[in-house]
Design brief:
The protein is mainly alpha-helical and 222 residues long. It has eight helices and no strands. It has a single domain, classed as Rhopdopsin 7-helix transmembrane proteins, CATH 1.20.1070. It is globular and about 50 Å long.
C-alpha cells in the first residue's frame, strides 16, 4: 500500500486549513476589520473541510454533496463580506443587494435547478467568477489609489491573490464537475490533483498574509 499524490495534497489541505484558522483565532486582535472577515472565512472553510473528510473517510457517506451546496452559500457570504469591507464603493446598500441577490440565486439553484445530491456547478461557478471580479477590483483600487499603504494592505493583497488563484483554477473543475465524473478514473484523478495543488498553493499564500498581519505593529492596524 502506498500514498498517492492526491492523498498527500488532501492531507496537506486539511492540515493547512486547520492551521490557518487556528493562527487567525489566536492572533485575531492583530487583524483589521476586513481581515477579520477573511479570518471568519478561514474558520468556515476548515470546518467544512473536516466535515467533508469525516463524512467520506470515517462515516463512509456515499454522497456528501449537500455539504458542498451549503458551503457554497457560506463561501459567498464570507467572500462578499471580505470584498465589500475592502472596497468602499461597495459598502452599504450595494453590499446588501449583492448579499441578498447572490444568496437567493444559490438557494434557488439548489432547490429547482441542481438538487443537493448533484454538483451545484452553476452556483459555485458563479461564486468563483464573483471572487475573480472582486479580486480584480481590489487590485485596481490598490494600484490606482494614492493613499495605498503597503504595511496596512499587504495581508489583504495576499488574501485576494490566494482566492483569485484558487477561483481561476477550481472554476474549471466545478464548471464541468458533473461531466468530469463521467471521465475515466485516471483522468479524474489527474484533474483532481491539479485542483488540489492550486488549493495547496493558495493556502501557502494565505499563510504568508497571516504572517504579515501578525507581524505588524499595533499602530499599523486600521
Amino acid at each position: 500500500m502506498y500514498i498517492t499524490i492526491n492523498e498527500i495534497l488532501t492531507w496537506f489541505i486539511l492540515s493547512m486549513s486547520f492551521l490557518l484558522s487556528v493562527i487567525f483565532i489566536i492572533n485575531r486582535k492583530s487583524f483589521n476589520h476586513q481581515e477579520k472577515a477573511f479570518g471568519f472565512f478561514l474558520i468556515i472553510n476548515s470546518i467544512f473541510e473536516l466535515i467533508a473528510w469525516f463524512s467520506v473517510s470515517v462515516f463512509n457517506v456515499e454522497n456528501n454533496l449537500p455539504g458542498l451546496h451549503l458551503y457554497t452559500l457560506f463561501e459567498f457570504l464570507c467572500i462578499t463580506k471580505f470584498a465589500t469591507s475592502s472596497l468602499k464603493q461597495l459598502q452599504g446598500l450595494p453590499a446588501k443587494i449583492i448579499l441578498v441577490a447572490g444568496s437567493l440565486f444559490i438557494i434557488s439553484n439548489s432547490i429547482w435547478i441542481q438538487n443537493i445530491y448533484t454538483y451545484n456547478s452553476i452556483s459555485i461557478t458563479a461564486v468563483k467568477i464573483f471572487t475573480i471580479v472582486m479580486s480584480v477590483l481590489f487590485f485596481y483600487r490598490m494600484l490606482s489609489s494614492k493613499r495605498y499603504s503597503i504595511v496596512q494592505t499587504r495581508p489583504s493583497v495576499y488574501f485576494f491573490t490566494a482566492i483569485f488563484l484558487n477561483a481561476c483554477t477550481s472554476m474549471i473543475w466545478y464548471m464541468y464537475s458533473n461531466q468530469i465524473l463521467l471521465l475515466s478514473d485516471e483522468m479524474n484523478i489527474q484533474l483532481s490533483i491539479m485542483k488540489n495543488a492550486s488549493t495547496a498553493i493558495a493556502n501557502l499564500i494565505i499563510l504568508i498574509g497571516l504572517y504579515y498581519a501578525t507581524s505588524r505593529k499595533e499602530n499599523d492596524i486600521i
